[in-house]
Amino acid sequence: MFPPRPPAPETDDDLVRLIRQGNQTAFMAMYARYGSAVYGLVLRVVELQPIAEEVTQDVFLKLWQQPEKWNPELGRFPAWLMTTARNAAIDRLRREQRHRLAEPTASEIEAEELRGEDSPMDAPQWATGQDLRALIATMPPEQQRLLDLAYYKGFTHSDLAQVLNMPLGTVKTRLRAAIIQLRGLWHEAERHRAPS
To answer: 143-163 in b/e burial notation, b at 16+ Cβ within 10 A?
Structure first.
């Protein structure tokens, strides 16, 4: 009679530790756990299925080759993975458009200004982006468009000003207001999410 198999690791920490040791089963478990969420986010950014598939593969290849890039002291694994995926998708989108930009994206500037442990863009429970997109959908259309272009498309403040035909200062003010409103909606949703 064969001895019983040990239970599969349950936590992301366990899986990443095993991936660091070259464990392919742990890597496949991580892909099964997060592959769809990563692909969904990447597809929203690049809008083309073949490119989204390639970027998703690249994100997981990076996890396999460099699992030490995730530092658990700086945040939870899902938030890190989704941020990595978003950045990879935006980089690929820029390469596809052959549009090199020297300045950081508007969402990176705003996120840095509003950075905090309670940032809705980085919260692990919002990592799949579905709940976050649902909150954004409740906002006025102008704010939705700003957040979509800045966060999902990686537009800089200058890009936004050009595309929206607005002064740069107006774009910065409106984007900051949209992110502050999104943070307020997120806090409200978190209050309702917490058990009474």
So the answer is: beebbebbbbbbbbbebbbee
